[in-house]
Structure formats: C-alpha cells, structure tokens
Amino acid sequence: MKKPWVVGTVAILLLTGVAFFLLNNLQKPSVPIDEKEPATQSLSDQTTNSQMIASFGEFDVDNELIQYYEGALGYYAKPKVEGSYSGVVMIHEWWGLNRNIKDMADRLASNGYLVLAVDLYNGKVAQTSDEARELTSSLDQEKALNNMKAAIEFLRKDGAVKLASLGWCFGGGQSLQLALSGQELDATVIYYGTLVTDTEKLSVIKWPVLGIFGETDTSIPVETVNEFYQSLQKLNIENEIKVYPGVGHAFANPSGQNYAPNETKEAWNKTLVFLNESLKK
C-alpha cells in the first residue's frame, strides 16, 4: 500500500527552492559519476571514512577475506557471538574495495548483521579519478550481477535470515541493479545513485527501498528524483527516499568537496533504522 505523505515516511517539502524529500523507493547509477574529491590525496583510502560517519554497535566483530565468486575476495564481517542474523551485501564506491569500505562493513556488522563487502574490480583499487573512471567504464555488468548474486547466496548459506544490499555512488547504482535483476531481497539501500523511472523495470521490486540523495546533486537532479518517486507511487512499492537540502553528490564522502557531516550522520542513522525495520522484524 502507498504510504501517507507524512514526515518520516513519504513526504515532499519545498522550501524556497530547496527540495526536501522523504519519498518511497530508489535507484542506481548507470554511468560513472565523479565523486569530487581533493586531487592532492591518495583516494583509495580517502573515501567513505567510517570514523566520521558511524560508531560501533553493541556486538564485537570478526572479519576475514573470503572467496565467494570466481576468485573474487570479499571482506566478510560478522558478530563474534553466535546467533540469528540477517545479511547485507555492501558494494563499494567507484574506487574499489578499500580500507574504509571494510571499516564500514565492520561497523554495520557490529549492529548485528552478516556483512559481505564485495569486490567488483577483482582486487583493483583506484588511486585517482581517472583510474576509477576506467574501472567503472570497463566493468562487465553481467559479471558484476553474478558477483553480487554469489554474495547473496554465500550469506544465505551462512545462515542469513533476511537479505539486503547497500552501496554508495557507483555501489549505490549496483545496489539498484541487483534489485532490478530479479534477485529476491528484503531491502535495498542506495546512496545517491542515478535513477530509473521506467515502471516496467521497477515493477520487479517487491521489498522496501531506502534512497539517500543531495538536493544540489547535478548528476541526479531533484526533478528526476520526483519522477522516480511518482513511478514508485504507481507501483505501490514501499520505500523512503530522502533528499537533503543544500548538499551535493557524494556528500557522505569525508574526503570530498561536498562532504556534509551532519547530513552524513543523519543518513547513516536513518540507514540503521531502515535496516532494523526491514530485516529484524
């Protein structure tokens, strides 16, 4: 059923040209998007900095590199305490599976999840925007989908009760691609990924979706977000999309020019609440 237009679930507030959306469902980036980072830094370790975004939860965590797909080594983090947990496939930014994504996997796992951070680049990690752009443009999408589906199967075999995907930028797009592929999930999380408005393509999604976007993101205009929302409304897909006023693309990237710390922390807390409601109830 469609959610009512109320703050906290599905709402659109327009404030003097600033769009603030709490909508329903989300989408993915189909083309590489520059993440606007300082060119003077080594970027493979200067992306989503978990220490600035998220604190650890109640569980101590074990982690290891595991082979889950045709030689691909993923970073697997899970609570040390044996129990019944849901699983999350975490998908890296266009830089690759770097240290900070692994740290985010640890922090999410500490909240009571089995988290497999996949590697869609076969071990390669970009150091510059040009390298990252080359990696994304040369990606075989069919293999990427098979990679993520293998991660889902790994988590399922390891006892995951429910399953979700989560990604930032490039990874946000891949998170939606996984949802659109027909892979059965229980939740999808996308941070500022390019949107799809085709209702026929979106109709395969049968579970809640959380989308996080920036109002001044020129690569994903607010108008497109609204079009996407209208398509989701027609399909009665349970979802929540938030567009943060005054912030741009990759606002959750602490090394980038668009970093917005308050919005980043709020978005992560919203993500934890969403996953808790979608996977633990």
UniProtKB/TrEMBL annotation:
Gene3D superfamilies given in the database record: alpha/beta hydrolase
Top-level taxon of origin: Bacteria
Cited Pfam families: DLH
GO molecular function: hydrolase activity
Domain Dienelactone hydrolase stretches: 74-277
Protein name: Dienelactone hydrolase domain-containing protein
InterPro entries noted in UniProt: AB_hydrolase_fold, Dienelactn_hydro, Dienelactone_hydrolase-like
